[in-house]
Design a protein that fits this description.
Two copies of one chain form a homodimer.
Chain A lengths: L7 E5 L4 H12 L3 E8 L6 H12 L4 E8 L33 H16 L3 E3 L15 H14 L7 E3 L7 H11 L23 H13 L9
Parallel strand pairs in A: 1-2, 1-4, 2-3, 4-5
Protein name (chains A, B): 7-cyano-7-deazaguanine synthase
Pathway (chains A, B): Purine metabolism; 7-cyano-7-deazaguanine biosynthesis
Cofactor (chains A, B): Zn(2+)
Chain lengths: 226, 226
């Protein structure tokens, strides 16, 4: 418990399972949730509808969605419709094609700009170093270094804290944390290729980790599958 | 001289005097210029037209403009049309209202993402610590820290260099450098409140430093004033 309900915190909200848990955690920590989402041409646009539902359900004080038109491909199968999102492949060591270059860095940069305006000292990000699919910008060292940078990047007269409470939790631990906080995971969408009704494919990386998480947590999976 | 004309470098290009000098410098250093501009609702949209002119004139291999819709105000007089851009006020110590929170951080984040895709190792940014209007994200320490972050933020197997060759130059030195490189400053727009024809106001911070620079450099100022 480190905020008061009038103290704003910026919460990066994708509409997935992790960031929903994050938003409820920020509220439980006593902050006025200022949710920040991005429309960057991702395939899984139903995520943005999920982010809206989550922001409303958690009682966010504000929810801003920044639209980004990259003016060309990102090289990622998450945004380029001529690339297929691959199925989960166990034991794969390489960076998957769903990797969007510098995505968390970009998202944190916008979050920091908003935090400075709000005079918010804390930014919540739902990165996870356990089930992280090998993304380099989900590593603890990245979060620590970004915090150092944040503290010299702005005109603010206070320090910033990049708060990543899910960093060392397994997916099952995240789900159990969320259950205790009262998160309704039926509102969230994790699938990289959900259909227009928000139904999950059940076969991509993201679905794999989510299903495994509910199984390991012993919690009924509320996900709707296509 | 560190690149070959086939080696890509990402060059942050605003269409102003500094970044035009930067683009010519990158070409002189032997790189294939990959120019990156941002349409973030700035008042001085004629800057973007200037960026197009500069990219063509320098023979850029590519020019990408990323559109960003902040989904709300930035708190800066550069983008919020209900705020007036102030005249230059000598000796002002405070951060001016034209400051856009975390702007260079956000721009560098996008540049890094593109550099990773291009397998480019060098990013050119035209920040300047001398005539820098007090912006915190123009300080040498900020650039150094961003480079450290860049080198853990991506999946690249090579280091990145954030190259800021104008950092310690006065405006007059920048102009003399550009003259030697053959920059046509008539293509550029620096004014924060240029009119639709790209004519400068002659009274804002940016005009002040530009005029002073041409005077100090002993170079004829090609700027068109309203």
């Amino acid at each position: 418990m480190s905020g008061s309900s009038n103290t704003p915190a910026v919460v990066l909200l994708s509409g997935g399972l992790d960031s929903a848990t994050l938003a409820w955690q920020a509220r439980a920590d006593g902050y006025a949730v200022h949710a920040l989402s991005f429309d960057y041409g991702q395939r899984h646009r139903v995520e943005l509808e999920a982010a809206d539902r989550v922001a409303r359900a958690v009682g966010a004080a504000a929810h801003r969605t920044i639209r980004i038109d990259m003016g060309g491909g990102t090289g990622s199968s998450l945004t380029d419709i001529d690339q297929a999102v691959p199925d989960y492949a166990p034991g794969e060591a390489a960076i998957p094609s769903t990797y969007v270059p510098a995505r968390n860095l970009t998202f944190l940069s916008f979050a920091l700009g908003w935090a400075e305006l709000l005079k918010a000292t804390r930014i919540y990000i739902g990165v996870n170093a356990v089930d992280y699919s090998g993304y380099p910008d989900c590593r603890p060292a990245f979060i620590e270094k970004f915090q150092e940078l944040a503290n010299i990047a702005t005109a603010a007269d206070h320090p910033f804290e990049i708060h990543a409470p899910l960093l060392h939790l397994t997916k099952a631990e995240i789900i159990r944390t969320g259950q205790a906080l009262g998160v309704d995971y039926g509102l969230t969408v994790s699938c990289y290729r959900a259909d227009e009704q928000g139904r999950a494919c059940g076969r991509c990386d993201s679905c794999h980790y989510r299903q495994q998480g509910f199984r390991d947590a012993g919690v009924t999976d509320p996900t709707r599958y296509a």
